[in-house]
Each structure stands twice: as C-alpha cells, then as structure tokens.
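Hi Y.,

Following your request, here is the sequence exactly as I used it, all 48 residues.
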Amino acid sequence: MDWLSQITVGEVIMTFLACCLIHETLVVVLPDHLAGPGGWLIDTGDQD
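Below is the corresponding structure, written out as tokens. Let me know if you'd prefer a different format.
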C-alpha cells in the first residue's frame, strides 16, 4: 500500500491528458465504423 502514497497529483494529471490524447488520436485515425458516429469501439454520437 506504500506505492499508493507515492503517486503525485502531477502524475495523475499527466495520465489523464495522455488518455485524452490517445482517445482523440483514435477518433481521428480509425475509420467511422470503428470510431465515429455509431462506431462499435468509440461511439462519438448519433449517426445523423
């Protein structure tokens, strides 16, 4: 349980930003049927 006390706020923020960057990269790079409106991996909204 000592490892939990060694996590800093900066590490948590950097991890969150890295996850956001990965998510946005996947939305841009992957085709719409995977990551887009109605996509099965990342659904970005309605298929209108």
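DSSP finds one helix and two strands in the chain.

Thanks again,
Q.
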